[in-house]
Specification:
Helix content is 87%, strand content 0%. The protein has 89 residues and is mainly alpha-helical.
Length: 89
């Protein structure tokens, strides 16, 4: 196991983690900004109003992108297991 391989493995792991976290975070961010603008314009300062739409948006993102996310993690795992002989050396 060389240093170059470990760096490549760490880079791929971080890339997959960021790729999988992107859609739910982006949906939550967009809904949070919209709710914040709505609260600022209507002067409704209810603290719990921000959580429910964000939770729904994150679940929606996972529902919409779930199969893509699962395929990405399975592909990464297959690649990792396929390179197992190189890792063990």
């Amino acid at each position: 196991m060389t240093q170059d391989f470990l760096i490549h493995l760490a880079r791929e792991s971080l890339f997959v983690a960021l790729m999988l976290a992107g859609p739910p975070l982006l949906f939550g961010l967009v809904v949070g900004v919209v709710v914040s603008i709505l609260q600022a314009t209507t002067q409704i300062q209810e603290q719990t109003l921000t959580f429910v739409p964000k939770i729904i948006a994150v679940f929606l993102a996972v529902f919409l992108f779930g199969s893509w996310m699962l395929n990405a993690i399975v592909q990464f795992t297959e690649n990792l297991i396929g390179n197992l002989p190189e890792i063990i050396r």
